[in-house]
Amino acid sequence: MMTVYFVVMTICSGFEGCVDERQPGPTFASKAMCMETARVMAPRKGVKFKCRKERILVVDETPSVEGYGKIVTTKSTGQP
Fold first, then answer.
1. Is the dihedral of CA 41, 46, 51, 53 positive or negative?
2. 3 located within any domain
3. Which domain of life is it from (predicted)?
């Protein structure tokens, strides 16, 4: 498992309350890098930028055998 951070835009209005919406874009390895990106985003009235974390599963894929010619057997005759 690995933790990544992403920018969330919180939009608040007087009638509906606040809604969180994930910003499209890259993920960050540390919260400091995410906060630095959120700080430089253009401020708008009723909108705040925050960083949230998410744990993701990193799969280490091993290459599969491309063909049966790479399999070596000690049996001289016969098919499985």
1. negative
2. no
3. Bacteria
Question: How many DSSP H helices and E strands does the chain contain?
Answer: 1, 3
For the whole model, what pTM was predicted? 0.58
User: pLDDT (tens digit, 0 to 9) for every residue of the chain, 80 residues total?
Assistant: 788 898 998 888 777 788 888 888 888 999 999 999 888 888 888 888 889 988 877 666 665 555 555 556 566 665 55
Amino acid at 37: T
Quote the domain boundaries for residue 22.
17-52
Give the total number of structural domains in the chain. Answer: 1
